[in-house]
Amino acid sequence: MSEDAAGTAVLAVQGLRKSFRTGQHGVAAVDDVSFETWPGELYTLLGPSGCGKTTTLRCIAGLERPDAGRIRIGAKMVTDAGARTFLAPYRRSIGMVFQSYAIWPHMTVFDNVAFPLRVTGVRHAEVRRRVTDVLEVVGLAGLEERLAPQLSGGQQQRTALARALVGRPRLLLLDEPLSNLDARLREAMRNELRSLQRQLGVTAVYVTHDQVEALSLSTRIAVMDRGRIVQEGTPTEVYERPATRYVAGFVGASNFIEGELVTRKNGRARVRTRLGELVVTNHATQPTGASVSIAIRPEQVVLRPHDGTRPSAVENVVVGVVSEAQYLGEAIEYVIEVNGFRVKCRRPAAPAVATGESVHIELPPGACSLVGAR
Amino acid sequence: MTIRGFEAAAERRLRWALEPRIPGPPAGAIPASAGAIAILALIAIAVAISLRTTPLDGTLTLRHYHDLLTRPQALQVLFNTIGFSTVTVIVALAIGIPIAWLVAWTDLPFKPAVYVGMTVGLLMPGFFTAMGWLVLLHPRAGIINVWLGQAFALKPGLFDIISIPGMGFVQGLGLASVVFVMLAIPLRAIDPVLEEAAHTAGAGPWHTLFRITLPLVTPALAAAAILVLVISLAVFDVPAIIGLAGRIFTFSPFVYYEVYPFTGPPDYGFAAAFSAGMLALAILLSLLYTRVLRQARRYEVIGPRSTFRQPRPLGVWRLPAAALVAAYFALALLLPFLTLVWTALLPFLQPPSAIAFSHLSLDNFSSLPWALIQETAINTAVLMISVPTLALLLSISFSWVVLRSQLPGRLAYDYVAFLPQAVPSIVFALSALFFFLFVLPPGLGLYGTVVPIIVVMALVYVSFGTRVTNGAMIQIHRELEDAAAVSGGGRLVLMLRIVLPLMRPALAYSWLWMALLAFRELTVTNMLASRSTGTTVAVVTYSLFAAGNWGEAASLALIMVAVLLPLVAIYLKLAGLGGAISGAVSAVPGR
Fold first, then answer.
1. Do A95 and B204 touch (CB under 8 A)?
2. Do A163 and B202 touch (CB under 8 A)?
3. B28 touches B397 (CB < 8 A)
4. ipTM
5. Residue B472's pLDDT band (boundaries 50, 70, 90)?
């Protein structure tokens, strides 16, 4: 993919807007979305249903016309609402995997996968070679002559993937490709998809509502809410430094502790809460005096038996009582009550702490994020 | 009882409850078995007659088949039937496909009205439309031909409806609604994401149309075409009404007039041989139909449905398209209706003019044979109630055997239930006539009553009824029945309290649908009704028309429509538009 020289975005989306008419009102599905993806990236649009992620993807594919904004794939401007540029989907050199796979039921696996090559007039022998190769890669060798209705869900998924990859597209679009598989298969396909994408080096935009998929597959994630991107970053950034209360709640579980920002200096913020004054080492942007929430993941809450010894840490340590303990196999999820406030805490299953026991909990300042109040 | 004993009893009880329903020969299979035997017997009788020198006591012979291949008249009828069916299929597809496409995929206005119109079209008796068009385009007396002759001094008979193309045209107008119904649902069911996938795979609009869309639609199209072909090969109403005037016969009217000849004795053997030939052809076509339909169904459900098809904007073509659809309804329903109104109000037929308007009167209504109509109205009402009831009882029994029992050979029941869809009704009627006239002891006095008609029509409608009851019973989750059984309900309780109530909506609208079909039925009733008793209003209308009393026939036909339309309205209200259409999919009108 020589055209996509390093330093040039494979896909650039700028100021994308799209609203749908429902009765009298237009509902904004995509509201000023901009982002870029780099060669070899797997860029994920993550959000709940109705957040505009699929509409964004369909705009990139050319299956929807945006009301405003520009989309560039490689060097080619494929959509420019202002200049009334709109390239049909079949001229965008993309591959797409649909949520329902969209395997053509009247064709065999081979014919399905060969379709993108045949419509562009690739020679017969070349078609055979490339289809055989790609079926080998996705693990469907030997199923060439099966008809779509005879395929299992996983096989349909692989067929769809092979069909999207066979034309060596500049950009691979994936619309919730794993959501229709059962849990076990989903995990296997997730790993496979990841290694395949890295191995082929194809740039991909991936749409999902599943945070585990997003965190494990992506090079970067854009979390979407009501048509907007609310945070963009690597999986680690998004998970460990959620920018908003929405992100903290949607990507993984969080404890939210309400409070008031007291001081802020040297990257350390002090927040007055029901648990006492807590320190957060997070780049807070809120002014002092603002109502804020501290978000902290249950697995980052440190739990120690209250055995009379002083805890090692000095900051953000409070005393509470274990009120619930739920055994989850590899871990136990505790609920600790502190001054009537319930803090969730997830710890390895051993050593276990009994309910009713008094414990120290520590909220490491580096693990706390400052987000907007409720 | 010890604790152990109690547990063992409870376990036994549970195990009994969880065993597959109906382990032994179930009582529920008795009606289905009787029905299946009757259907097979009616087919066998026709074949048996065709192989004997004389129907009752003759010896085995192939003479009738020899006659079939050598008599010029038989070949003529065969050619007529093929020509008529070809024209019918072409006309029905040419009208039905575009309208189904417009309704399913575009933003055509007034879609609900199209559904209503098509449902009315399915139920409108074929003889009604045929009478209207014959009155309009009879070569000598037809209103349009006479008017053209007067206005432009043309020689009469410019448009001759009494011809194979003419009859095929009228039949095609009627069966366009069948094509529409057969296509509207599959077209809507094709997931647009399949086309989007082609676009993202680099295929332009033409490629997508020819490689993806058309191949996906083809099975449904083929199924519609075969169904229309099967119907038109066997249809009676239209070719009988129009063809009689010029002695142009297709298969069903020919069989009828072999049994009730204008002169001379009936020729059962020849009619039966012809029937047996058509039977073989029809069964072959039906096998093909089932195959193609299965293929079509397979294309409908693949993976979870994802995208809603955005109706394609017609833009400036929106109103012209609506006008074309309206023109179809004008030709198929409105024009024949107005023609019959005009015919009914005039003492003798003439094109509209000032003089004609001064002659308008209700004389035709008052001169109708009211005593006969009163008697036949009672017969018709009896048919409308008993035929659907019997047909549904049989259908429920068939579905029960096929879907819920462990009976060996239960799938064969489903094939037998589907046979009347393939076999021309006139063949059943012929066999039944023979059976009730000659085989049953005359002392029973059943011939000349409505009983033979009820039996045959109920058997014929089992092919439609079982499609409905199969569909309804499949949707009842097995665990709902198991739950009732575990709660201690016996088999009868299960049926009456769980299964039937759950099937009630489907049963209700299919009952009404069959009642409406029975109301307008002409093929079986005409054949089985004796000349004096046991006839229906539809037969009286046909007889009046065949005897040349066009004005009276038209007035009686209008009275029938006046009864029919409110019932259609109730049906539409009951089934809803979607239900009406899906309920009608497997209905076979006009046979």
1. no
2. no
3. yes
4. 0.80
5. confident
